[in-house]
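So, can you check this record?

>
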Amino acid sequence: MENLVIINRAPTDGEFDCKFHNGLVWKTCLRQILFTTADQVHHFQIHDNDLVLSSTDALGYLTEVLCGLKSPVFGETEVFGQFKNFLEASQKINQTVLPANAKWVRFLLELVKNLRTEHIVGLGSNSYGSTLRKLTRDVSELSVIGAGQLATEILPWISKNKNIQLLVRNPEKYTELKTKFANVTVADLYSSTTFDKALIVAAPISNDDLIQIIEQAAQKPEFIYDLRNSGFEALGNTLKNIRLLSLSDFFEIFNEDKIKFENLKIKISHIIQQRCLDYTKRLEVRPLGWDDLCL
């Protein structure tokens, strides 16, 4: 463990100008991490922006990465799965940096699992989809205006265990969405006679058109989640009994979540630092002598 060295290399403007041309490298879209040892690190060219860490610091950094503390989406799980795939692949090549029986690797994986279970669960992510899922947790039916990029991004978040009425101008263009999401129905925006309890506006429809559509509906929504940049300049009589959450309200929620995540990130980082320090300073009883010692 004390011999472990990692070199973390981040992209510049989204591109990796300088790539590692040899060595054992774990690659993601946000970073490349080269795994080596203290006696081999001099074989690799180190650039000014590279982060070089060893022993406890390397273990702590890897834990933070795998817990999603260094990801744009706090606590994301995909990076942990990518690393486990990398470990599996590394065992199939002739290398000694990450031996299959490395105790520090087992400690790393177990620590990440424990931290995720104890501190990073049920948080969702800082996005429209995750926020809408939390806001509509108790709503079984939703109406959504729009089927563009924003609407299709939020559908995976909100469609589970809910019936979704997708309201669009040309329903025949979006039949594939009904195949992809079994509980989604597609209807003509201007022919709809009822709205579900909650309405999500995810298309650039004008205020006049939206008010007119709601006015002619036999069943009006109780909540409107408005994701348009324009929003309502005035609610009008039609919407006075409807609770409205505007785009600026979503930004406030994001900001509150960001503060909460930052505080949690600090707390988890302190836990990681102490756990990794305890691990590297541990005493081990070796009844078989030193022959069973591994990296």
Notes: The first helix runs from residue 55 to 66. Residues 4-121+261-280 form a domain with the Beta Polymerase; domain 2 fold (CATH 3.30.460.30). The chain has two domains: 4-121+261-280, 128-245.
